[in-house]
Amino acid sequence: MTAVLEISGLQKTYRSRKGARKALDGFDMVVEAGQVHGFLGPNGSGKTTTLRTLLGLIKPNGGRMTILGREVPQHLPEVAGLVGAIVESPQFFGNFTARETLSLLADAGGVDQRRVDAVLEVVGLRERAAERVKTYSLGMKQRLAVASALLKEPKFLILDEPANGLDPGGIREMRTLMRTLSDSGMTVLLSSHILAEIQLICDSVTIIAAGRRVAAGSVAEVLAEHRSTKVKVRLEPGVDMFGAAQALRAAGAEVTLEQDHFIVGNASRPAQITRLLAGHQIFVSELTPVTVDLESVFLQLTGTAPVEGANRQVDDVAATAGNGWGQ
Ligand SMILES: Nc1ncnc2c1ncn2[C@@H]1O[C@H](COP(=O)(O)OP(=O)(O)OP(=O)(O)O)[C@@H](O)[C@H]1O
């Protein structure tokens, strides 16, 4: 596979009278051709800074970036025509219709007017194209924004939070649209906080935390690498669950009691549980791995899982869980 986007060692420090803030600290990312690639990170982790730097809107302090094999920002003018991007919500004139809006943008960008109908069709606004934008729902405005980015027939589409503010139906439509674009051969990079969506839409992901890459690869790879070490344990009815929990805790296990079962949080070798409990004449009737999803991987890697009784501050990164017990 060829890379449409390659970023290595990207650095950005914002300086103001209040001091310096390192937004990107040697960040790396690779997006392969034809993929829908999810760009994930908690608030303030550096996603927008990365996308704005990529588009030449911010000057980095170090690192390398290439788009479609060309080094940017030096060669941005050569590839700009092949890149469509929505990094900040575009503002449209409310009194213009979608067709007028796109027609104006096509003229301004030297794009053939025939593209207007083509992109209206792709984003599903054909039937509503003669209505004023101010009467549009948020989802329709998002579609119009995507349509505007598609006018130039880009090979690479960059979307910052395209599903932001959409209802579940709108999110699903956006998902279908992303797939349609990818099936037509386009490479799509999208940042999002909606992890369940990313898991469904994206082929691959990059997770950023505090300006550095903390995970990357296909969704399946990232999930496999961070396989849950949690297991659900159920005992025969009537067996002393508290005694079992105590025995496991004494051996270093993290045990959370639930109503009719308990969860061992750091069970990298589940056989230890059965062996240890059997040693106490306690027998297990169910031992099931707790499945991991992108959201739990994200919370684990970025240290942003909620902490009971605390209001996590934007830059707080909690310590991540340790490795196993009794090894
Ligand atoms: N113009 C600026 N001046 C100073 N600091 C900035 C500026 N822009 C961003 N930052 C800081 O850089 C860090 C990264 O911000 P960035 O907007 O890239 O994060 P993000 O991942 O896009 O966050 P979100 O998901 O909340 O949009 C944050 O700590 C932010 O406060």
From TrEMBL:
SUPFAM superfamilies (alphabetical): P-loop containing nucleoside triphosphate hydrolases (SSF52540)
Gene Ontology molecular-function annotations: ATP binding
Top-level taxon: Bacteria
SMART domains linked: AAA (SM00382)
Ranges of residues in domain ABC transporter: 5-235
Keyword Glycoprotein: no
Keywords annotated in UniProt: ATP-binding, Nucleotide-binding, Transport
Pfam families named among the record's database cross-references: ABC_tran (PF00005)
Entry keyword ATP-binding: yes
Listed InterPro entries: AAA+_ATPase (IPR003593), ABC_transporter-like_ATP-bd (IPR003439), ABC_transporter-like_CS (IPR017871), P-loop_NTPase (IPR027417)
Family label: Belongs to the ABC transporter superfamily.
Name recorded for this polypeptide: ATP-binding cassette domain-containing protein
Natural source organism: Actinoplanes sandaracinus
